[in-house]
Specification:
Number of strands: 10
Number of domains: 2
Strand content: 15-25%
CATH superfamily of the largest domain: Aminoglycoside phosphotransferase (APH), C-terminal lobe
Helix content: 40-55%
Radius of gyration: 20 Å
Shape: globular
Length: 276
């Protein structure tokens, strides 16, 4: 994506009816390539986050998600073209060491809220999986191991009914902030994608919400709004298998993430799931 110069934002002045920008600081590209973000300070000293989406379609999709789930986000002032404006949140970013069970209950509730949108989409799950499996270098997962993974996947696939829905896919600590009053917000507006139901949950359970008490708090929040009967042991194994393959293929395909430490967790879990 071509970078947009800070001077252009100052000249264009998006949301000039709300804020007259006097200072704009780049926060860099957003993981997942959903755009760029900027910290904007108005003439009255109030600060905002300006999201510059990677395309008009992406901007409209973010706008629709925010409208449907406004309680997940900081106050949004709307969209102008590819720009969206949010309140700037002062507070702390969550970490993997977060101990407050209320945080995990809230995360569970939010995942349920997203699933309750029931925005089902058709998709070829087999194609999604095997394309990514094929992208993993044989030096990392051998052809013999891929044959074993394929056998496990196909066996589970026959037994499990799967939907593709809108998913809060990037449930990672740095995408959430708690303000000074203790209110939690999702601060990655591009964290939503049509994915296999529960794929984002699998990612969180594998890499963040590992402790049994935290996991129990998550499911307590989730089941208050949405049944988790579908997410039994076999289903969890299935979506974790898909998430491991997805993550390894993505990370080994990017120069900045291609070192073993970036996909170590997923590789270990993949081999555990498949008895390799």
């Amino acid at each position: 994506m071509a970078d947009i110069k800070l001077e252009e934002i100052l000249r264009y002045q998006p949301f000039r009816n709300i804020v007259r920008a006097v200072k704009v600081e780049s926060l860099g590209e957003i993981a997942g390539l959903s755009g760029q973000t900027f910290k904007v300070t108005g003439s009255d000293g109030k600060r905002y986050k300006l999201h510059y989406a990677d395309g008009w379609f992406a901007a409209r999709e973010i706008e629709k998600t925010v409208e449907k789930l406004p309680h997940l986000f900081p106050k949004c002032y709307g969209r102008e073209g590819r720009f969206l404006l949010f309140d700037w949140i002062e507070g702390r970013m969550l970490t993997k060491e977060e101990k407050n069970p209320e945080v995990y209950r809230r995360l569970g509730e939010w995942c349920a809220d997203v699933h309750n949108l029931n925005e089902v989409k058709k998709g070829n799950i087999d194609k999604y999986f095997f394309e990514r499996l094929g992208k993993i270098p044989a030096s990392i997962v051998s052809n013999e191991e891929k044959a074993r993974i394929t056998w496990i996947f196909e066996g589970l696939r026959k037994e499990i009914d799967v939907e593709i829905v809108v998913e809060l896919h990037d449930i990672i600590p740095e995408n959430f902030m708690v303000d000074k009053k203790g209110r939690m917000y999702l601060v990655d507006e591009g964290a939503f994608m049509h994915r296999i139901k529960g794929l984002g949950i699998a990612k969180a359970l594998m890499k963040w919400i590992i402790d049994p008490k935290k996991r129990a708090a998550f499911w307590e929040g989730y089941t208050q709004k949405h049944s988790n009967d579908y997410f039994d042991n076999e289903y969890e194994r299935f979506v974790m298998l898909i998430e491991c393959v997805r993550a390894i293929a993505f990370k080994t395909g990017r120069a900045d993430l291609s070192q073993p430490e970036f996909y170590k967790t997923e590789l270990i879990k993949l081999k555990e799931l498949c008895g390799i």
